[in-house]
Amino acid sequence: MALGATFGSTGREHIGTAEGALGVVTAAALQLASSPSLDETAPTMLAAFRESLGASEAGLWLDGPQGLALHTADGDLFTDRPTVEASLAAPGATSVLAVPIVLAGRRLGALAVRGARADPDPLPYIRTLGAVLAPLIGHAQHAAELEAEVAARAREIDEARRFTEKIIDSLPLGLYVVDRDFRIRAWNRKRETGTQGVSREEAIGRTIFEILHRQPGDLLRSEFEETFRTGRIQQFQMESVATGDTRTFRISKIPMRLSDAGVTHVITIGEDVTDWKEAEKRFMQGEKLAAIGQLAAGVMHEINNPLATIAACAESLQLKLDDLRQDGWPLTPDHSDLLRIIDNEVHRCKRIVDGLLDFSRPKTVAKELLHVNEIVEQTLFLLQHHVRFKKLQVATHLDPELTTLVYANREQLLQVLLALLLNAIDAVADQGTIIVRTRAGRTATEAVLLEVVDDGMGIPRSDQDKIFEPFFTTKAPGRGTGLGLSICYGIIHDHQGRIEVDSTPGRGSTFRVILPASEGV
Ligand SMILES: Nc1ncnc2c1ncn2[C@@H]1O[C@H](COP(=O)(O)OP(=O)(O)O)[C@@H](O)[C@H]1O
Ligand SMILES: [Mg+2]
Q1: How far apart are the CA of 448 and the centre of ligand 2, in A?
Q2: For residues 273, 274, 275 and 280, what is the CA-based torsion angle, rounded to 10 degrees?
Q3: What is the pLDDT of residues 343-362, one digit of tens each?
């Protein structure tokens, strides 16, 4: 526009003369110098040039980074090669004058007019405009090339950034990075989930104290300062209820150095190790039970013999007393009672010892393909006459769709279910609800689930780790041996299964036996 205005005001009296062409050249130079966009200035410039030379047409061919392009005086821009090449050939044209536009030996394009007036000779003007245009076009092309290069680099950098971002977002870890001012510089997507999740957009640039405001600021600061100061990795475990249930996280604070001048950032990684910890605990429990079992087996063997001796002595004393009584000795009934107590107690000891031996002796038991629902029904049938079961109802929720068989020993499964039911009865103190439930699991190694649910007193959290240990009991002496669950544990372990408990003190407990499918064994 400015070019047209310039030409219009200064060139009006020159229209139709070659001096007009000179004005166009000057105006073009000025215009391009202030705005090196050829697309904008070319049509106006060419139209003015065409008019000043009295030509029928003026065109500018450019061979730039985007390929060959043709600007016309009518404001058209052709970029498809065949059209541009056809116009260059200009078949049947009369008096076509064209000059190459060359800069430092490189041909940038060509400027041409068709049907120009012959007097004065238009060629010098075309040449001059070509010469004026050359550095400007070169500059514009260079700028366009640079711009394209910058854009390509920016795209590359952006792609690289997105790639690393994707990596840290795909990790099954919460990760964030703070700088020396405790400002958050990176925050992965995992940190956005959970009830205390904060979005990346919200977190980046804020201080860690603003974002993790639930954690004590002093503690947080000292943890970071420690890593900044020592340059060493710190690791610790932490419990969190952010996702609803209690989960254990292993937190690592890792120093990062952008330069040689010490730690510039600290990377914090939070890894959910709840399942791993559970597995480790189960493993330790198994190890401990095995060790106790071996120990107990040895001790029990030693105890069995003296017990047998005591029982035999008590029996022969009893016979002796009977003889003496028959011989008329004045014996009080006390003596017999005392012997009976000895006998009873010896038998109680023997039951415990047998129970322990049962638990600790490596057994090869006959296994068969069984349906867990059937075991439940059989157990309940056996129990229906048991005095303690008469008072309450045991409900069953047996999954009729459960078709998976387990490879197990019938008596042992009965024993497990019986032990769990007896514990449930103790827990509800003869007045509560007990449910036996079966259902299908999700995998072949966890194919069948058998649960005993009660709404009894529940188990304090501090005891939940101990109940499977032999001799752990909270029951009065004589009522509990503390062996029931440890025997269950041994049996289920022997069946490649798992036994676990969910319990809320005051609300009740669920004992869950998980067994593999028969073909999974
Ligand atoms: N269903 C239950 N509800 C509450 N506590 C239970 C339940 N089952 C087991 N317990 C706890 O676990 C302990 C150990 O159980 P167990 O090994 O069967 O031994 P015992 O029944 O002889 O005490 C019990 O003393 C009790 O404290
Ligand atoms: Mg018990």
Answers
A1: 23
A2: 80
A3: 888 888 887 787 777 666 55
Which among 405, 425, 403 is positioned nearest to 413, based on CA atoms?
405
477 Cα–ligand 2 center, Å = 12
Say which residues have a Cβ less than 8 Å from residue 195's Cβ, sequence separation at least 6: 242, 243, 244
Spatial distance between the Cα atoms of 360 and 146, rounded to a whole number of angstroms: 81
Q: Is pTM, for the whole model, over 0.70?
A: no
172-272 domain in CATH 1.10.1410.10?
A: no
Domain range 368-520, CATH architecture: 2-Layer Sandwich (3.30)
Residue-level pLDDT at 121: 83
Single-letter code of the amino acid located at 297: A
Is 355 close to ligand 1, i.e. is its CB under 6 Å away? no
Cβ atoms of 252 and 234 closer than 8 Å: yes
Top CATH class, 2-147: alpha beta
Q: Is 41 exposed, middle or buried (0-12, 13-18, 19+ CB in 10 A)?
A: buried
What value does the CA radius of gyration of the chain take, rounded to a whole number of Å? 47
Q: Among 42, 32, 45, 44, which Cα is nearest to 62's?
A: 42
CA dist 226 → 27, 70, 234, 252, 433 (Å)? 69, 67, 9, 12, 54
Q: Is the shortest distance between the CB of 454 and ligand 1 below 6 Å?
A: yes
394 ligand 1 Cβ < 6 A: no
Alpha helices in 53-122 (DSSP H): 81-89
For 284-307, what is the mean pLDDT?
Answer: 76
Q: What pLDDT is attached to residue 40?
A: 79
Phi-psi region of 249 (alpha: psi -120 to 50; beta: other; left: phi over 0): beta
Whole-number Å distance between alpha carbons of 183 and 186? 9
Ligand 1, atom 10: closest residue by C-alpha: 423
pLDDT one-digit tens code per residue, 191-245: 887 666 889 999 999 999 999 888 899 999 999 999 999 999 999 998 887 767 8
Cα 467 to ligand 1 centre (Å): 6
Please indicate whether residue 423, judged by its CB atom, sits closer than 6 Å to ligand 1: yes
Element spanning 192, H or E? none
Instruction: Give the whole-angstrom CA distance, residue 521 versus residue 504.
Output: 33
List strand residue ranges (DSSP E) for 17-123, in order.
57-64, 67-72, 77-78, 96-103, 106-114
pLDDT at residue 9, rounded to an integer: 35
Read off φ and ψ for residue 198, nearest 5 degrees.
-125, 135
